[in-house]
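Course exercise 7: structure representation. Students receive a sequence record and must write out the corresponding structure in token form. The form below is the worked example handed out in class, using FAD-binding oxidoreductase (467 residues). Read each field label carefully; the graders check that inputs and outputs are placed in the correct fields and that the protein name is recorded exactly as given.

STUDENT ID: A-19
EXERCISE PROTEIN: FAD-binding oxidoreductase
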Amino acid sequence: MAGKSDGARAAAPGALRDAVRGSVLVPGDEQYEQECAGFQTGDGHRPDVVVAARTPQDVRAAVDHARQHGLPLAVQATGHGLGAPARGGVLVSTRHMTDVRIDPTARTAWIQAGVRAGDLVAQAARHGLAPVNGSAPGVGVVSYALGGGVGLLGREFGYAADHVRRIDIVTADARLRQVTARSDPELFWGLRGGGGGLGVVTGLEIELVPVERIFGGRLVFDGGLVAEEVLRVWQKWTESVPDELTSAVTLLPMPDVPGVPAPLRGRYLAQVHLAFSGSRDEGERLVEPLRDIGSLLVDEVRELPYEECASVFSEPDTPHSYRSANVLLGPEGLSDSALRSVLTAAGPSAEAMCVLSMRHLGGAFSRAPQVPNAVSYRDAGYLLYVLSPVSDPGEDVVRALHERVLAPVGDRALGRSTNFLHGPQDQGTARAAYADEVAARLAHLKAEYDPQGLFRFNLWDTGAGRG
Ligand SMILES: Cc1cc2nc3c(=O)[nH]c(=O)nc-3n(C[C@H](O)[C@H](O)[C@H](O)COP(=O)(O)OP(=O)(O)OC[C@H]3O[C@@H](n4cnc5c(N)ncnc54)[C@H](O)[C@@H]3O)c2cc1C
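STUDENT ANSWER:
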């Protein structure tokens, strides 16, 4: 293999290389760093071996290799949700497994493990269909769905996990299984929303929804003037909107640097993100009370093809180092005093930069899917989360700050959202993403399908001290 040192060549597992169509990389190989890198730059994987998989058989070979040598195994698609970083062991990189097959008649998509939301949205749009994707086009479809999946139109269609029909997965015995509600009901239940750790998924069959256009986008307010009012008015407003409207608020400071549009540069912003599948006229009427808040800097709310749905959140796509914390709140949301306390800790005068966000749940998020799954806390009305970059200040400062931000709502919290836990978690936090009976069933599944604990460095494993 080009660019590989002699030392690395000697360490490369030859039998694994023979079994894999993609690449097998070890430290020192030219592609090793690139394959380990992900969106989260804070603490990347440093495995002894990377299998850059091209096929399900490659994944099977990697799992078999790990099993035979007693090595812990990590999986990465895009690195947006990196939990515990692998130190040693095997990393299966799925980023090259990007096949998408749409069946417009059945309204389904078959996707491989490395497919990103933006690619799926674009391909589904050609057939007048859409996946129940989330805010950022770069996020991997598989892991997003394994963690539940809080989508742009989730109040109308529910969690992404509710739309998974079939899961192809390599389990710890190195078997490639096709898991459906009929073939393996308990495993199918636990994979959809359970946060992973039961195998390496090689592909999913998911349902698509018939959405070609939406009325939506961003309203960006001058948060230095009206942050509290935006949060308060928005929360009150969500109490009366239809299920076809899903929305969120994000509060954040914008740096004063070239590249940020002039009206936003150097300001504290309060953004409302909206996606409505109803008519434009109805949308305009629904949005009026928000526009009336005033101090609007940018109004991008309009009718748009679903293919442009990434503009609803317009999240930055530059890899960086970050940590986040979250709570799921009941339908009553934040009291006025909690709202003020949260804003004091995470708002414009926060000790470190905070992106404070609240998403409206309820609607179809709250309804049980036809085939039950492991998504917990369906009675949640809102998801509140805070995210901060962690180069300066360091991780300890940021974690302590996040605890202070969420402390005022602790007594109202139902639990945590799996997908919005970024970075290594302590066991208590990961555990809080599941109701007691769900966590117990998931623990049984882990014991049955991965008794040796082969699949590590995921939500369920902090990986501390492992290598
Ligand atoms: C900018 C941004 C926006 C986001 N927006 C949303 C949103 O709107 N809604 C929402 O619900 N979530 C959202 N998330 C969270 C995101 O869905 C999760 O972090 C998800 O786990 C990312 O998956 P990934 O494949 O992109 O990341 P990765 O880091 O590659 O994967 C995350 C973890 O999933 C596991 N995993 C990955 N692939 C497989 C596989 N094939 N088989 C088994 N396990 C696997 C591994 O444990 C891995 O560590 C967002 C995250 C970011 C950073």
